[in-house]
C-alpha cells in the first residue's frame, strides 16, 4: 500500500514538473539565473586575473564587547542561516536565531549544540512576513537583552530569511509574501533594530543576504529576451506602491515568481546601498577613512558594459592612496551629479566619523538548500544535478563563506558586495547602485509602511 502511495506521489510530482517546464518563468530561471551566476564568477575571475584592484578583506575576530557580542540571524532554521549561525557561535558570538516555527527553532538549537557544545543561543519565534510579528520580536529581543548579562546592543544583524514562492500568497498587511519576506522584512527589521545596533560600543554590522539573480533582468540575454518580447518585464525598474508591495502580482493570472524573486533581491540591494549612503551622510559609517584633503576624480567608461560610467577617486598624497568602494557613487545618469555628491558627501560625512553601523551585502552563489521547496521534487533534484555538473553548486558550508566574510569584515568595508568567499568582493549590477532609484524606492516603501503598525514604531529616522 505504501509503495502504491509513493508511486501516486511520484506521478503527481512529474505531472507538476511538466506544468513548470511549460512555463516561461521556469525557462527564465534556468537560463537567466545560470547566466547571472556565471557572470558573477566571470567578474571574480576577471578581477583576479586582469585587475589590480581586486578587493578582498580579511576577517576580524569578534570585537571586545562587555561580556559577549550578539549576532541576530533571521531564517537560521535551515540552509545558509543555520550554517552561518553555527560558524559565528564558534567565533564567540551569542546567536539570536529568528524563525517562524517553534519546533524548527528548538531542533536548530539542538543541532548547533550538537556541533558546538559551548554555543550560546537564544531563539525567537517570529513570522518575518508579518510586520506585527517583527515588532513583537524587536520588543522581546530588547527585553531579553535588558534582562541578560549582555550589553544592551547588537553587534551583527544578518537579514538572511528568504523564500522562492511559486504561487501567490498575501501577508497579513496584504503584501506579496515573497517581497514581504525577502525585502520588506529586512527593511522593517533593520530600521527597528538600528537603535540597538547604534548602541553597540564597537562597530556594528548589518549584512543583507542578496542574490546573483538581481542581475537577471539586466544582462545581455535579458535585453535580448525583452527585445524579442518573449515575456513582459517588471523592469524599468518600477518602484510604485503596487509593484513594491507586490499587490499587482497577487491578482495576475500567472504568478511571475522568477521575476518577483529577482525584483525582491534588487530592492534589497537598492535599500542596502541607500541605507549605507544615509548612514554615511549622518556621519555614522566608517566607510571612508580620509586624511588627505584633495581628491582626484577620474571618470572613465566601463569597459564591460560600455554604457555605465565609473568613478574612481584617489587621494593625492601617495601615502593616502586608496581605491575605495565607490558603488554608491556610480551613476549612469549623470556623472557630474555624482561628482558633486561625492564632494558633498566627503566633506559632510566621513571625516573623523566615530560611529559604527556598517552595511554589507553577501551573495552566497548557488547553494543546495531548501530554497526550492515549492518546486516539484524531481525538478529541484534535476536542477541541483545539472548545477553540480556545471560546477556552480555549493554546499551551505561553503555558500555561507560570503556571509561570514561580510559579517566579520573589518571596519571601513561598508557598502561592499561579498561574493566567492576568501573575503572577496565584486560589483553588483549598475542598476542596483542607482542612487536616484534607491531613493525613490525608499520613499515608496516608507509611504507603504505608513499605514501599517510600523508607523507607530518609528523611533528614529
Ligand atoms: N540557496 C541559494 O542558492 C541562494 C542563492 C542566493 C541567495 N540565497 C538567499 O539566501 C537566503 C537563505 O536561503 P536558503 O538558501 O538558506 O534557503 P532555506 O534553506 O529555505 O532557508 C530559508 C530560511 O528562511 C526562513 N524563513 C522563510 N520565510 C520566513 C518567514 N516568513 N519568517 C521567518 N523565517 C522565514 C526559513 O524558515 P522555515 O524553515 O520556517 O521555512 C528558513 O530558515 C535567502 O534570502 C535566499 O534568497 C539563496
UniProtKB/TrEMBL annotation:
Entry annotated with the keyword Oxidoreductase: yes
Key words, A-Z: Oxidoreductase
Record's keyword annotation contains Oxidoreductase: yes
PANTHER family, per the entry: RETINOL DEHYDROGENASE (PTHR24320), RETINOL DEHYDROGENASE 11 (PTHR24320:SF227)
Protein name as catalogued: Uncharacterized protein
Similarity-based family: Belongs to the short-chain dehydrogenases/reductases (SDR) family.
Gene3D superfamilies, per the entry: NAD(P)-binding Rossmann-like Domain
UniProt cross-references to InterPro entries, sorted A to Z: NAD(P)-bd_dom_sf (IPR036291), SDR_fam (IPR002347)
GO molecular function: oxidoreductase activity
